[in-house]
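Let us practice reading a record.
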Amino acid sequence: MTLSKKELDALKRQIEARCAALQAELHADADKARGETYADLAGGVADEGDESVADLMADIDNAELTRDLAELRALEAALERIADGSYGACIDCGLEIGFERLKVEPGALRCIECQRVHEKTFAHPERPRL
């Protein structure tokens, strides 16, 4: 069973709307980052605690930008797959990725079973910590 035209159109609209939202968010975050200095984050008379909070805030902002950019790239790749007719096919087994999975994760590259195997295969082993 392949995706119907109605399902494909709905997914395409969903992806395009999410791309627009991500682009707006990325632009707003970039503008905010340009206007915010380290001194703004740490305060006028920064001590070590203020500096660590400023570092943490900067790291979180960077992680959010990285996450949003990765999602945008995945969705743009999904739009390319829609255009070339390969959208909805698992890159590992070639079987169809279910519509319900694509509604939740429109950039999905793998069916549920292949994604499970992929995550188990490429999971990072637990590292000892102090």
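A brief commentary: Residues 5-122 form a domain with the Four Helix Bundle (Hemerythrin (Met), subunit A) fold (CATH 1.20.120.910).
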